[in-house]
Design goal:
single chain, Ubiquitin Ligase Nedd4, Chain: W, Nucleoside Triphosphate Pyrophosphohydrolase, nine-stranded mixed sheet, 12 strands, binds zinc ion
């Protein structure tokens, strides 16, 4: 967790207190009587599909430089989750997704690192890409071509595995997962819920 040293309003010293009515230590400025809350980050992204292939980006930045990932990044203030996911897809892959071609797909809670990942399934209409500064390359992969040993993040691997399973059923329910470290500091993924659809209700 990043530490603040100075108040962003008055540049006075930040101290750690449990505010009245609260039960957690918070960064406080006693001069302004302001509490600076730190809350989890939302990371929004897409699983872009073109025909029978899936778009992946090879990371040009740490962490996991050189590994493959889905386009995703931190949500900005003032945008919706879907707007953020489409923006990240444009910035990292140069790929254009339309809101009406996207549907909510996977939510991952990562409480140990204060993050929430949200992926939308998106249908691409063209294979025109342009890797942004955060990507070394952008490419489309069939299921058998996915570089499984070179996938950057557990959430990306899981979303991809889920997608190829779902495609065999031609059903794409929304699922929510928890990803937590156990006592051995190994990541454990558990499925918390998934939406139910009548057969054929969802087409992609
Ligand atoms: Zn202050």
């Amino acid at each position: 967790m990043r530490a603040m040293k100075y108040c962003q309003h008055c540049a006075g010293p930040i101290t750690r207190h449990i505010p009245p009515g609260d039960d957690k230590l918070r960064d406080c400025c006693l001069q302004c009587d302001v509490v600076f809350y730190q809350n989890p980050n939302n990371i929004v992204g897409t699983l872009p599909v073109f025909g029978d292939r899936v778009l992946l980006c090879r990371r040009a930045i740490e962490p996991r430089l050189g590994k493959w990932t889905l386009p995703a990044g931190f949500m900005e203030n003032g945008e919706s989750t879907l707007e953020g996911a489409i923006r990240e897809t444009r910035e990292e892959a140069g790929a254009q997704l339309q809101p009406e071609d996207c549907q909510l797909y996977s939510l991952f809670n990562l409480p140990d690192i204060n993050q929430v990942y949200l992926f939308f399934l998106g249908k691409l209409h063209s294979a025109d890409f342009d890797p942004g500064p955060e990507s070394l390359e952008v490419a489309l992969f069939r299921e058998e071509e996915i570089p499984w040993d070179e996938i950057a993040f557990t959430v990306v691997r899981r979303a991809l595995e889920q997608y190829f399973d779902d495609r065999r059923q031609t059903l794409f329910p929304v699922r929510m997962f928890d990803l937590r470290y156990d006592e051995q500091h190994t990541l454990r993924l558990s499925l918390l819920s998934h939406s139910h659809h009548k057969d054929g209700e969802i087409h992609h």
